[in-house]
Amino acid sequence: MTRKPFTILAVAFLAAICLIHAVRVALGIHILVGGTEIPVWMSIPGALFTGALAILVWREARRT
Hints:
This protein is mostly helical. The protein contains two helices and two strands; from the N terminus they run αββα. The longest helix has 23 residues, at 5-27. The protein is elongated.
């Protein structure tokens, strides 16, 4: 695999966001945005989506 710094950075960023969502769900952390509480369950699709994107980008980088 050739070095692709942007791809590595994108995978790391997406994986970090996935991890943050997963930690929020596991610990039940409450978030307020403009006085409105964002439900914890909304982090589940966020974690799944960013995790899937990280895996897809990583696999694509390995194929080329």
